[in-house]
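WARN no homologs supplied; continuing
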Amino acid sequence: MPFPVRTTGSGRSSGVAVLASALVIAIGIGGSGCGEGAPDAAGDPPEHAPSTGAMTPDAAARRPVQPSAGDVGTPPAPSRPQDLGPDTRSRVESLRARIEAEPRNGDAWLDLGRLFHAAREFDAAARCYAASDALLRDAGSAYLRALVLERLNRRDEAVPLLRTAIDRDPMLSTARWHLATAMLESGDIERALAEARGAITAWPDDPVAPILLARGLLQDDRPAEAAAVLEDFIRTRPGDRRARWLLGVAYRALGRGEDAAREQALGRGAGADGWPDPLLDSVRRLVTPDRAAQVEAIEMLRAGRVDEAIVALQAVVRKDDRDLEAQINLGTALRRAMRLDEAIEVLEHAIRINETHEMAHFHLAGAWRQKAMPRADVRPDAAMLQHALVHVEDVIRLKPTFAPGHGLRGEILTLMVRLDEALESYAVAARLDDASPLWPNRRGMILLALGRSELAALEFRLQGARAPMDAQARLHEGTAWFRAGRLSDAMAAIDQGLALAPEDAALRALQAQVDAARAAAPGGAPGG
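OK structure emitted
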């Protein structure tokens, strides 16, 4: 693959190179790629799942019968074991044995339910999810149980479970847009609009909720509002055919014939997929079965089952290699498996689908950064870092308020030994994300390595303010004050750290160094 044309001077002395190596080890930004400054959820595409039929409008009045936490029954066996692969059969039996030994292990029930769910053993999955819900009482168990109950046409039970999932986790956007779909199909448009807006609030980049919101507005004869929603959505996802087609419907209703023809031509593929007039078709066609596979794959990723997630996502993209979210999901999974050449190929394909999708550029930048320096004990590859920098700057151009993008730029610039620029990138990230302790930590480490100890101490103090229970922030602050010769400030930070972690060996060692320095001061006077 060609490297980018854009280049930047990168002269370095041997002393600066040694400093860069020290920073890599201190900050921890080599290797697996987990140090980009963004939690996995920040870069993960949405958790899509299918909707398979209308739900009755009075379902909300009834709650499904739940087993009590003390009576979860015995784990089900597969009804079609011959349809399961050898590995899946082995894992099912292992989990069943584990549950028989630990019947109150809610996580094991949940894992077994996911296996049955993926194998389309919906009755067995529903039983397992019911048991995990009774034991864990979490949003995920209720949500997954609702999905399989939809598949079993037990819709009166599914809707209340979606409400339960939202009550437990108001930020669960997928449950909200499932509920929005159900409300649209039942004719409760106002509730559907409220849930769609709630899903957008929970996850602003969700590519389903805005379409559901626009669909509801069109159904409520509010085409101008629908057009505004879709125009805003298309600015970040110009290649979404569903949005283009719906925008054409809105324009047609507003009497904008030429604009309608243009948008529906751009969305023609969506019409060919079976909904030539969304005003007359079911909303559930917007949520395809392949989205369910993506939900399950994301759950596998979060459970650490990376290889399984990769296989599941590869199956999705084989069916439709234009599925942007699936491509980004697959690239993310390949990055976690350190299959970086494959990740780069997949993410470059995602950018060809939509070159303005910031998360495709973000993950591609991260993949090139990982490839440039897969371990902390190797020298980074300058050309690969330059490729990473090009893409992370595209992220910032597309979404200037995305703090992890500025943070990743800071990491790349640190490895390129452009430390003043790295400090500025971390400062921008800290301003945009004023709760995370990560960015002041990164700035502090660079400043400390550069010998600017007092400034480093102030950054570590900010880190400690943002993470009140983090003893390591106090250790870093104490180290910086000690190097600046301000022994009283160093001891104050150490005392705060020891109050959090009384047996911390590093804090005790630093305390001994500070005590020795204070004793050696003229007259034994405390320094600082």
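The chain is about 65% helix and 0% strand.
OK
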